[in-house]
Amino acid sequence: MFETKYFYRGWRPETAIHRADEDGNAKTAADVGWRPYIVTPCFPGYASARGIGAGAARTILWRAYGRKHHDITLTEDSLPNIVLHYTDLMDITDDVATARIYGGIHFRVDQDVGDRVGVEVASYNDDHWLLPLTPGDGDGEESR
Questions:
Q1: CA distance 33 to 41
Q2: Strand locations in the chain, DSSP E?
Q3: How much of the chain is helix, strand and coil, in % rounded to 5?
Q4: What separation, in Å, do the N-terminal and C-terminal C-alpha atoms of the chain show?
Q5: How far apart are CA 79 and CA 73, in angstroms?
Q6: Cβ(53)–Cβ(116) below 8 Å
Q7: What angle do CA 55, 92, 73 make, to 5 degrees?
Q8: Taking phi first (over 0 means left), then psi (-120 to 50 degrees means alpha), and beta for anything else, what does residue 134 get?
Q9: Mean pLDDT throughout 45-63?
Q10: Contact status, residue 115 vs residue 93, Cβ threshold 8 Å
């Protein structure tokens, strides 16, 4: 992922907003006072490593346990009035992506591409590496 980040060298929102007068688009204006809610990491944003991890984890869990009908509740002692409850694995990773965007450290494309890469990597690994060890463990083929 970091090779991709440094190959494309995509701006993060903080840089893009501060330097919007340099982007060649007459409809944007710089706002040097804008600050993200989350401290901006010191490396390029595209594509989101968190998006890749979330997409990969969701794919493996989805294949093992199904997408829906879970009972997952998240709380944080320092935020006692906030309780997140999920039944769909997709909702969790959608919230992760949205938090990174609302936090001001990623654009939507960073998250979307990262998620797709994560799904592809996890699917490849599941199809090619995470295989049954003995006959009859799921696919009817001989031991690999």
A1: 18
A2: 72-76, 79-86
A3: 45, 10, 45
A4: 30
A5: 14
A6: no
A7: 140
A8: beta
A9: 96
A10: yes
Residue pLDDT, tens place only, 2-13: 999 999 999 999
Residue whose entry in the numeric block shows the structure tokens 């991890």: 53
Closest to 35 in 3D by CA, of 9, 13, 10: 13
pLDDT tens-digit readout, 113-137: 999 999 999 999 999 988 877 766 5
Residue type, 27: K
Strand, coil or helix: 78? coil
Burial degree of 73 (CB within 10 A; 0-12, 13-18, 19+): exposed
